[in-house]
Amino acid sequence: MKRKFLTLGVSALTLAAAGPVAFADDEADARIEALESRIEQLEETNRRLLAYLESQGAPAAHQAPHAGHTGHAGHAGHAGHGADTVPASDAPAQVAHADHHVAHHGDSMNDRFVGLSTDYSFAMLDHAEGINQRQLIQLRAMQSGELDNRVTLSGGITVLANYQRSNSDTKFGWLMRHPTSANQIGEEVSELVVHSAQLAATARISDNVTAYMELLYNPEQSFGSGTITDLNRNQVQVRKAWVMYGNLDNSPVYAAIGKMDTPFGLNDTVSPFTNSTTWHSFAGLAYGGLVGYYADGLHIRAMAIQGGAQFRAANTPVNGTNVPSRVNNFAVDVNYTAPLGEDGSVLVGASYEHGSPYCQAYPVFHFNPCADNNPAYAVYSRVRMGAFEFLGEFQETTDVWPGSAVPDPTNPLSVYEARETRSWAVGGRYGMDIGAESLLDLSLEFSRFRAGADGAPWERQDQYVAGLSYFLAPGVNVFGEYIHTDGWVPLNFLSGGNLPGGATWSEFDATTDILAFGVQATF
What we know:
Blueprint lengths: L1 H22 L2 H30 L35 H15 L8 E3 L1 H8 L8 H11 L6 E16 L21 E17 L4 E9 L18 E10 L7 E9 L15 H6 L2 E11 L2 E8 L2 E2 L5 E2 L12 E12 L3 E10 L22 E10 L2 E13 L19 E13 L7 E11 L9 E14 L2 E13 L18 E16 L1
Parallel strand pairs: 1-2
Antiparallel strand pairs: 2-3, 2-19, 3-4, 4-5, 5-6, 6-7, 7-8, 8-11, 9-10, 11-12, 12-13, 13-14, 14-15, 15-16, 16-17, 17-18, 18-19
């Protein structure tokens, strides 16, 4: 209606300016008709442009923002010069493209292309908690509106200062960096390092399809050879990547295919930085396909896992080899969360894995082929009560680990029989109110990895962690830890096979004390 009045007004002004003589002038009449024709063309272009903008999520004409507010359709600036302004000559093609886009992708997604979400990024990139819950974290972030952008970028870096002291030369039992003599010499070491750096992208392809990719740089825990300054240990890898179909607003069922954490155990820790030995022992990373169900606190997951030796903690033989050429492994997890009082909750869960990593024969080496698979199971629980949190977990293989025994009867170490591989952890955390914007978290945790028979040099490795941490800002966590380890049991050659005379480099009485401080920052 306003545009019609505008057209009539322009025409009236033109006629008034022309005067009586102009009415008799055929040339003036022709000019008036040409002017009105141009106004009609502009009106049609304007109509099509508004239709295009509305299809892209801009407010309708009757919902136009107040003067000076740009909304989603453009940036501040004069008309025709905004960065998002569509030229009139291109409007028909743009409208056709918009109709095609809406037909194939729906119009419920936000028009913004790239964005950030600090809370979501920290949850996805944190190595200490939510270890194998990343798909559910994404689905819940979609529900809360944290993933309204087409692409959400995430990044993080963890820097570390530490001092370590061992009672045994070059044997440091802290597993937050690989314990090798190439990087830890003598009985005292200290570091000021980048522990890890990550960059990730989450893409909302449609309301139901999400893609995720995460790059990781981790020289301290890389399997590359050499020192932490060697190029072999300073590589960037695609740590995780998948495409997921699911939207909890539409269905409790979701599915994903890619490289991801396996749904086995909890593997979380209450410590701010140091992972528990349950994570080091059984947390898997593999190619596979995941199907999940989440509703009313019940979470069920099943994953078909690529066979052979996978990236972490999954191994099933394929025709007697470690070649991942067949999908012949799987894991299943079921957990339930129930409310506890007014501000608490309790989580209980159980898992089963068909092919754990503890299947190799003597001498043990990472990713070696196995004669047969060795299943494992896990049970776990976490309780949150106000400012307190407690967790406990138990994991064990169903069969003995063949490589945990020395087969040569002439070797004195052959007296130790093969045992099932076991790991367990208990811990607690308290959020102390110190009158600041964030709570100061205090934590204590104990965890054990048992790999051999009682009294064997490779029987166990224990870990004690006392930690404190504080969020300076959303996504920026500063932390400090004291760590003590008893025993030194590296997975490679834990029962021997790499030293003269069949000796083992595992050491029952080795101890390590560590002071660590660091910052974990994400965006």
